[in-house]
Every structure is written in structure tokens, then in C-alpha cells.
Design a protein that fits this description.
Layout (H helix, E strand, L loop, with lengths): L2 H16 L5 H8 L3 H13 L3 E4 L3 E4 L1 H24 L5 H8 L5 H10 L10 E2 L4 E2 L6 E4 L5 E4 L5
Antiparallel strand pairs: 1-2, 3-4, 5-6
Length: 156
């Protein structure tokens, strides 16, 4: 997945969490980049007609941007599921984030043939939890401000 797709995914998730346009500050925080870097990439995505950015109002994805973001989320879910179900990696979120930029669609499609991905993917992805709801695993994570919490899959 390339950098543009990571930004599209982040914008999509922030839009879901904020129930409206994504602030560039929230995008930067989610990706752990500077606000200036986020603004620069948003400008590039806007030039490609993947999003619209209105100063002080936020960023909204276009239909093409939404489609690419959903593909990126689906690929991320595939990576997570593969790490858990096939490799039984305990720190799957950390590993998935490291693998995400280097796993392209072709590799994700091949991984998908190995796992039993749910048909509702990528709608299974919980934006606020940054994890697939259907994984059925407990994960420790650091929330905003470094607070630790426990997330569970179905029935949490």
C-alpha cells in the first residue's frame, strides 16, 4: 500500500469517527506525522480528485477516494487476519502497521486466498478501535493521550 492510500484510509477513518469532514490535525495524529505533512499530502490527493479540502472545515473524500480508502482498509484487515489466523502473531496490530506500506494489492489478494475473510469486509473495521470487529480477539492498545484500554471483537 502506498503513502497516498494510507492517507486515504486515515481520512476515511477520521470521517467515520468525526461523522463529517476530517480535520487535518486528526489525520496527522492518526498517521503520526506533522500537520504540515498531512496538509501537503491532502493537497496532492485533492489534485488527483480523491478528496476536497476546505480550509477550517476539513477534508472529505470523493467517490474515487472512498473506493480507494475502502480497498486500503480491506487490505489492512486481510493483513491483520493473516497475522492472527495463520501466523498466530500476538502483536498483530504492530506488525500489521509495519507491513501495511509494503503489502500491495497482489500480495493482499494472495493472502486473502489463505484466510477466511468475511464478506462484509471492509465494513467490519471499527474506526475508533482501529481493528476489525470480526477478529474475536482481545487487544491491548494505547488510546488518546497514551491511556491503555482493552478492545474485544464481537460481543465486546
Amino acid at each position: 500500500m502506498n503513502t497516498a492510500n494510507q492517507y486515504l484510509k486515515a481520512i476515511y477513518l477520521v470521517q467515520e469517527m468525526e461523522d463529517g469532514p476530517a480535520s487535518t490535525g486528526a489525520i496527522a495524529e492518526l498517521l503520526d506525522v506533522s500537520p504540515a505533512s498531512a496538509n501537503e499530502m491532502v493537497g496532492k490527493l485533492e489534485e488527483q480528485d480523491l478528496c476536497r479540502h476546505e480550509k477550517y472545515k476539513g477534508v472529505e473524500l470523493t467517490d474515487d477516494g472512498i473506493a480507494r480508502a475502502r480497498d486500503a482498509i480491506q487490505n489492512y484487515c486481510i493483513i491483520e487476519r493473516f497475522l492472527i489466523e495463520v501466523l498466530e502473531v500476538k502483536q498483530f496490530r504492530k506488525e500489521a502497521k509495519q507491513l501495511e506500506p509494503v503489502i500491495d494489492e497482489t500480495v493482499a489478494e494472495r493472502l486473502d486466498t489463505i484466510i477466511d475473510r468475511e464478506p462484509q469486509c471492509p465494513d467490519c473495521f471499527a474506526a475508533e478501535d482501529d481493528v476489525c470487529d470480526l477478529l474475536g480477539v482481545s487487544v491491548r492498545h494505547e488510546g488518546p493521550g497514551g491511556r491503555s484500554g482493552c478492545l474485544r471483537g464481537p460481543g465486546r
